[in-house]
Design a protein that fits this description.
Layout: H1 2-14, H2 22-30, H3 36-70, H4 82-95, H5 105-123, H6 130-154, H7 157-168, H8 176-180, H9 183-203, H10 207-212, H11 217-239, H12 245-256, H13 262-286, H14 295-322, H15 379-383
Helix pairs in contact: 1-3, 1-13, 2-3, 3-9, 3-11, 3-12, 3-13, 4-5, 4-6, 4-7, 4-11, 5-6, 5-11, 9-11, 12-13, 12-14, 13-14
């Protein structure tokens, strides 16, 4: 992870037009180089890199919160109506030509994300069943995406291009103002994540066991959705819904440390989310230069196959750890009563009980039967 982050950061700051060699990056960033290369690095590439790190960390942490709260590895913001609602809240004023200040956009995104997530929980019975929440969230996300398509039909050509690029998730032309607008929301979300992590570990046990341990599963699920909304909505307001980062980052953290719990997975999921977005932004900026492609297209293109492969390998590792049940060795008798050649069970007399004392057996000399040969056996045979 450290190697990927270092290489992708150097590529994000140095590659492009103009090209800045790695040995000049530190001087360009710290010394305030007034050349064209220094201005491009400090005013365009550094805030874009920081935005990629912050956005990926927020999406990765939100994905883990949703997956642990719903106990489903497919519970991602894209399938719960959260990302679609946030995108709808930002795209609607643009199409309707409403003049709003830039500071209001995070509030619109939070309102749309809360609308999508709240509608999902309301239709699914306020989050009482994790499977119902996931299925209902997919339906709500489809309805919100249909509303976005209606807005795209109403938009003119210029707005349509902006909305299309925004809906795919793009970090193009982002400045320091976009980065500084995320810090107030992070000050609220980070302490909530710290308090939420131990509860997520208890939620993995199931609703009944969580209730027995003092955690109200219904309220905990609502709180987890609220934290995910606070993490996702400001990022979506700035750079759009960067797809499937919340799906891939939690699976990477589990794959590298499968024996850990939500408390340890949470920071690693945030770190892997930052790495995924940073790595994806490099080909998004350079693959088709001078034309930039949205970073969300690359995260979806690479994230879904990688996430499915991680899920399959994680399942095989868990099955190998449990191990198959060892069959009985060849020729080893199975437990149970032994049987004679005639098919009757060969009963073994209990310790301390003589076969002379069995009553009702006509072959053993009890009442109602004739004296058997066993009554005339010697003491040695009886002892045997």
């Amino acid at each position: 992870m450290v190697v990927l982050l270092a290489v992708s950061s150097v590529c994000a700051l140095g590659l492009g037009t103009p090209y800045v060699p790695p040995h000049r990056l530190v001087a360009a960033v710290l010394d305030g180089d007034t050349t064209l290369a220094g201005i491009v690095v400090t005013e365009l590439r550094v805030p874009r890199l920081l935005l990629a790190l912050v956005a990926g960390a927020c999406l990765g942490a939100a994905g883990l919160v949703l997956q642990e709260a719903l106990r489903n590895p497919l519970a991602v913001p894209e399938m719960l109506g959260v990302s679609s609602g946030a995108a709808l809240g930002v795209a609607a004023p643009l199409v309707l030509t409403l003049s709003l200040p830039a500071a209001v956009q995070p509030l619109l995104a939070i309102g749309g994300a809360a609308l999508g997530g709240g509608l999902t929980l309301l239709v699914a019975g306020l989050g009482r069943s994790p499977s119902a929440v996931l299925l209902t969230g997919a339906a709500v996300a489809a309805a919100l995406q249909a509303a976005l398509l209606v807005l795209m039909v109403m938009a003119d050509q210029l707005d349509l291009q902006l909305i299309y690029r925004y809906l795919l998730g793009s970090l193009s032309a982002r400045t320091w103002e976009d980065v500084t607008g995320l810090w107030p929301w992070l000050l609220v979300a980070v302490p909530a994540l710290v308090l939420c992590a131990p509860v997520l570990s208890v939620m993995r046990l199931g609703d009944e066991d969580a209730e027995a341990l003092g955690v109200r599963a219904h309220r905990a699920r609502l709180a987890a959705l609220a934290i995910a909304v606070v993490l996702i909505a400001p990022v979506t307001a700035v750079c759009g819904p960067v797809a499937w980062v919340g799906f891939l980052a939690p699976h990477l953290s589990r794959w590298f440390d499968p024996a850990a719990g939500a408390v340890r997975w949470l920071p690693w999921s945030a770190a892997w989310g930052a790495v995924v977005v940073t790595v994806a932004d490099v080909p998004a900026r350079l693959a088709l230069a001078p034309v930039e492609t949205p970073a969300g297209a690359w995260t979806a293109l690479l994230g879904v196959p990688a996430g499915v492969a991680l899920m399959r390998s994680g399942g095989r590792r868990r099955a190998a750890r449990r191990g198959p049940a060892a069959p009985a060795a060849a020729g080893e008798p199975l437990p149970g009563p032994r049987r004679t050649a005639s098919g009757a069970a060969d009963e073994v007399p209990r310790a301390g009980t003589s076969h002379h004392a069995r009553e009702g057996d006509p072959g053993r000399g009890g009442p109602g039967g004739t004296p058997s040969r066993a009554l005339r056996t010697t003491g040695t045979e009886d002892a045997r």
